[in-house]
Design a protein that fits this description.
This protein has nine helices and two strands; from the N terminus they run αααααβααβαα. Strands 1-2 form a two-stranded antiparallel sheet. The longest helix has 14 residues. The mean pLDDT is 85.
């Protein structure tokens, strides 16, 4: 399911979250991890919801399978392209970054400004402020070459 390098990255991530190094991620581990990331007011219900996805103690094997399920849940590239094409009636292969940001922040799930900035961090944006959504779709479904080197 995963390449050896990916498994190693997941192992490092697991080690960062497993604050007490007992081999199992618990609510206190998640609280401390969130605290280190600057989010101090995460509620217990959110944490319980995360932990319940594991259907039991979250050891490294469960952690890996949860990520496998999440990553395999990514839409196929053609589905994502079709969604972007709705915002590109002229078929240029680009969408305006500012207009797309406005839509993301005001429609459906309503992204925050920080979430939009995170989403745009890997997006190929030209000097005129347009997103090359075909390249972005590739990055979403295959990963970013810059991250891997």
């Amino acid at each position: 399911m995963f390449e050896q390098s990916q498994i190693q990255e997941f192992k490092e991530a697991f080690g960062c979250i497993d604050q007490d190094r007992d081999g199992v991620i618990k609510k206190q581990d998640l609280k401390e991890t969130y605290g280190q990331l600057g989010k101090l007011n995460v509620n217990d219900e959110e944490l319980d919801e995360m932990l319940n996805e594991g259907k039991g103690p979250i050891n490294f094997t469960v952690f890996l399978s949860l990520f496998g399920e999440k990553l395999n849940g990514t839409d196929p590239e053609d589905t994502i392209l079709a969604a972007f094409k709705l915002f590109d009636p002229n078929g240029t292969g680009f969408v305006n970054k500012d207009e797309f940001k406005r839509l993301l922040m005001n429609q459906a799930d309503k992204f925050t400004a920080d979430e939009v900035d995170q989403a745009f961090a890997l997006a190929p944006i030209d000097p005129t402020g347009n997103i090359d959504y075909k390249s972005l779709c590739y990055i979403i479904t295959h990963g970013d070459e810059k991250e891997e080197s």
